[in-house]
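ARCHIVE CARD
Drawer: 12
Card no.: 0347
Subject: one protein chain, sequence and derived structure
Cross-reference: see card 0346
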Amino acid sequence: MARHVYHLDLDETKVRNANFAFLPGDPGRVPFIAQTLDENSREIAYNREFRTYICDFKGKNILVTSTGIGGPSTSIVVDELAKLGIKNFIRIGTTGAIQERINPGDVVITSGSVRLDGASKDYAPIQYPAVSNHEILGALVKAAKETNIPYHVGITASTDTFYSGQERYDSHSGYVIKRLQGTMEEWKKLNVLNYEMESSTLLTMASTFGLKAGVVCGVIVNRMKQENIDESLVGRVEKNTIDVAVKSLEILIADNFI
């Protein structure tokens, strides 16, 4: 009997021996990524925030599964996909930059994450690093160069919350607790490139499980210049990020990585 995983509503038969998955956060982004890989891709599961398509790309079965927002839901996806034989992951996300030199439309390729989340602490002590697999990291960098998309490689701050955890004051209360006040400037001074909410969980879990993972995020706002997202840019940013991710997969397949 094929093994079944509860939250993703997937089983070994549905995933057809795939060993690689793209992980966007937004379930609405899944079909676009899947159709970029394979115009005949199809949905095989959609439960809660977890939506999965299967694609045939360069003769390989590839999954695209949404994680939802944040570490807890990401941990479910990584754990359940790993149970079904998925060994390689690339997160495709969006992000806010905190270095002036990074522009909306650029991509950030995460070499490692500051573990500001809570979920990753259930898999390894805080001293354990959240780092990208070097082969996936290299493929993402090569892909950005080959697609002529401006990119930045470095450290990402990965938080549990979008507002307080990233020191945003445009929340309902307009208040950030004292422990978090000034943290954005501190991370900037420490050469952190950006904020997002899933990378530290993914990278910690991948390393502890003996899996391989990387992260590429499109910049939708530079928070040193403004807080409001220019929604007219979002489509272009998402396309740039997906183009880099897909090209990196092509490189990895050519290198017999998967």
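Annotation on reverse: The radius of gyration is 17 Å. The chain is about 30% helix and 30% strand.
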